[in-house]
C-alpha cells in the first residue's frame, strides 16, 4: 500500500501529494453475535487510508489542508487534549507537506511532565506544543484568546478538525457506503465525522454515532456543523450515549473484556479511545435486537491502535 510521500517545502504540494488509499477497504466478519440474528457485520477500514493520517483524520484534515495551501499559510495551528489523535495527524501532515505546526494542548499542568507517547510523536514531527490552562482552553475560539495563540501566518484548524469543510469531506465516506450498508456505526468525539457521513448516505440508510465523551452536548454540535456545511439537517442519524466508558480515554472492565475478546475472535486489535467503544455499542445493539434480520451493519474503523 503506497501511501507515503516525501517531505515538501511549504506551498509546494497539496494534500493530494500524500497519496491516500481511497476508497478504503470494506471487509466482512463472521461474528456469531451478529450472524445468529441474521445480521451481517462489515468493517469500513478507514484506518488504512494513510499510515500517518488514518481514518476520519484524513477525511477531516484534507479539505482544511487544501484551504491552508491555497491561502499561502506556512503554519497550521490546532487544538487538542494530551492524547489527541488529531494533534498527531496534524503534526504528521505538517511534516509531510512542509507546514510548521503548533498544537495548543489542554492542561497547563502537563507542561512540566515527560511527554506521553502521543505528544512525543507530535514533537518528533516538528509540532510546537503550547500548554494552556483549562479555563483558557475553553475560551480558545474567542478572538482575543486566539490572537494570543496564533502567529499572523497561521491557518487555524478547530479541535478535532471539525468544521463545515471537514463535514463536507466526511460526506464522501457516506457516499462510499451507498448500496452496501443499511446501518453505519461511527465513534464520535467532536461530531464532524457523523455530520458528514450521515449527509453522504442515501435515503433508507441510517447512521448511529457513539460519543466517547460524557456530557450529551453532541447533538447540538452536529446540527450546527450540518447547518454550516449543508444548510440544515441531512440524513438519518441518532446518538447512543451509553458506551463512553466513563469519559474520554476512560474504560470499564466490560469494555476491556469486549476488546480482548474481539481481538481473540478476529485477530484485530481495536483502538481503545474510539473504535472499541463504537464496536461494543454496535454489538450490544445487535444482541438487544435493535436490527432486523437481514440488516447490513457497517462499523467505521476510524483509527489504528
Kindly describe this structure.
With 305 residues, the chain is of the alpha/beta class. It contains eleven helices and ten strands. The strands form two sheets. Strands 1-2-10-7-8-9 form a six-stranded mixed beta sheet. The protein has a four-stranded parallel beta sheet with strand order 5-4-3-6. Strand 3 (75-80), helix 3 and strand 4 (100-106) form a beta-alpha-beta unit. The longest helix is centred in the N-terminal third of the chain and has 16 residues, at 56-71. The protein is globular, with a radius of gyration of 19 Å. The two termini are 18 Å apart. The relative contact order is 0.15. Residues 1-13 have low confidence and may be disordered.
Amino acid at each position: 500500500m503506497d501511501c507515503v510521500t516525501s517531505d515538501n517545502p511549504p506551498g509546494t504540494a497539496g494534500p493530494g501529494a500524500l497519496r491516500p488509499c481511497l476508497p478504503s477497504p470494506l471487509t466482512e466478519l463472521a461474528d456469531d453475535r451478529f450472524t445468529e440474528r441474521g445480521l451481517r457485520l462489515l468493517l469500513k477500514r478507514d484506518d488504512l487510508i494513510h499510515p500517518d493520517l488514518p481514518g476520519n483524520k484524513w477525511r477531516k484534515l484534507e479539505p482544511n489542508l487544501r484551504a491552508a495551501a491555497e491561502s499561502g499559510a506556512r503554519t497550521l495551528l490546532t487544538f487538542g487534549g494530551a492524547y489527541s489523535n488529531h494533534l498527531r495527524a496534524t503534526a504528521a501532515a505538517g511534516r509531510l507537506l512542509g507546514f510548521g505546526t503548533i498544537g495548543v494542548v489542554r492542561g497547563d499542568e502537563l507542561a512540566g511532565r515527560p511527554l506521553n507517547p502521543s505528544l512525543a510523536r507530535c514533537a518528533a514531527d516538528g509540532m510546537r506544543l503550547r500548554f494552556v490552562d483549562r479555563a483558557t482552553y475553553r475560551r480558545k475560539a474567542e478572538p482575543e484568546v486566539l490572537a494570543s495563540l496564533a502567529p499572523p501566518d497561521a491557518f487555524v484548524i478547530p479541535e478535532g478538525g471539525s468544521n463545515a469543510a471537514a463535514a463536507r469531506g466526511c460526506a464522501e465516506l457516506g457516499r462510499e457506503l451507498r448500496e452496501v450498508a443499511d446501518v453505519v456505526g461511527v465513534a464520535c468525539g467532536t461530531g464532524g465525522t457523523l455530520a458528514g457521513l450521515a449527509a453522504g448516505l442515501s435515503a433508507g440508510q441510517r447512521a448511529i454515532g457513539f460519543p466517547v465523551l460524557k456530557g450529551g452536548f453532541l447533538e447540538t454540535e452536529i446540527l450546527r456543523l450540518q447547518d454550516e456545511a449543508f444548510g440544515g439537517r441531512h440524513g438519518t442519524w441518532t446518538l447512543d450515549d451509553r458506551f463512553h466508558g466513563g469519559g474520554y480515554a476512560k474504560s470499564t472492565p466490560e469494555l476491556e473484556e469486549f476488546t480482548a475478546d474481539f481481538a481473540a475472535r478476529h485477530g484485530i486489535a481495536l483502538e481503545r479511545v474510539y473504535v472499541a467503544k463504537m464496536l461494543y455499542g454496535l454489538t450490544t445493539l445487535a444482541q438487544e435486537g435493535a436490527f432486523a434480520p437481514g440488516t447490513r451493519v457497517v462499523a467505521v474503523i476510524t483509527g489504528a491502535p
